[in-house]
Specification:
Elements: H1 3-19, E1 33-36, E2 46-49, H2 51-54, H3 57-64, E3 68-72, E4 74-76, H4 84-87, E5 89-92, E6 94-99, H5 112-133, E7 141-145, E8 150-155, H6 165-175, E9 186-191, E10 194-199, H7 204-221, H8 225-233, H9 240-252, H10 254-259, H11 266-284, H12 290-294, E11 299-301, E12 316-317, H13 327-330, E13 340-345, E14 349-353, E15 356-360, E16 363-368, H14 369-377, E17 381-383
Antiparallel strand pairs: 1-2, 1-3, 3-11, 4-5, 6-8, 7-8, 7-12, 9-10, 13-16, 13-17, 14-15
Amino acid sequence: MDSATRDYLRRRFRAYYASADVELPPGGESREWGYIPWTAGGTTMIRHKSLFDLGDVGTFLADEGPRHVYFSAAEYRDPGAGTMDEKGWRAADLVFDLDGDHLDEVDESTPYPEMLAACKDALQRLLDLLLDDLGFATESLQVVFSGGRGYHVHVRDEAVRRLDSGARREIVDYLRAIDLDLDGLVRTETNRGTTRRVLQTEGGWGRRTHRRLLSVVEELRTMDEERAIARLRELDGIGEKRARTILGAFESTPEAVQTGNLEAGGPGVRTLVESIANEVVDAETAPIDEPVTTDLRRLIRFPGSLHGGTGLVVRRIPVGEVDAFDPLVDAVAEPFENREVRIDVTEPGPVWMGGDRFRIEEGDVSVRECVGVFLLARERAKIHTNATPQR
């Protein structure tokens, strides 16, 4: 990025911060702070700062206009100390990071809005697991659009803030269903000397598998035999012969199929349950960035700051408003909405911003400033020499 473009973006970031009302995280004075200024290369992290070092955060941001701003998930006795050992770790939020370009269904050809939509689907799965399976209260969660490719979730429940890295790894393993197998989803029941193994239905992945099993059973009941066999064959490990065996079990032992009784239902029901469990894992796990959660000293983006790679706001989202949130509308910085700027486009193509789709041509163009800042920050354009923002 050339110096004129960096200077322009810094000035406009400063203008945003001059009008923004930033809100510190809980225990902000005990957290480490860091930022990346608009220097050549754009990767020089200045960290090991405390609020004492920065002074008033709002004033600091308006004066400096940094490219990226971070704070630590952890709280320390001395957050401004120069080494991690000297800081004196006290506790840390449980933090999850979802990155759109890490999703299996996303590749280099996926348009930006589609990547963000896929990531929001993953976010909703994560929230469902945190609230329904792990039992966190809604008020203990803070959801944040990262301003770039995805979302962060901060859990500030005192029951987890002092967990070590190993315990956080166990939470990651659960959310990603790592090493989950059928034996982990069943319980053994004994009644009058008879032992049977059935699906767990009280909670966790067993309950999720049972719920999907009931859904599949109801779906099959609406079908004729050939359609039902075709549906069963869509599941892993079920051929035509096994599908017919399972349908026979529906007739002879309907309760076994409904409850996932692996003894009475025979090998057909066991295969059905195993296949559905795999389907549930594929559909309902949360593809979180594992090292972010297990790292007790992670720095993460400061909500309310601007993302230096897009110019979008790192926006807090109430849990109940996640479904309605549109990052390319709701995270556009207000000072960039109603101006135009002149840029020299080096990488033309579509841009989605503010609810509109723009086809950007190569060369000297005037665009809405939110589009211009996005292109400049992505290094798809350079600032024009006569680029004073116009109303």
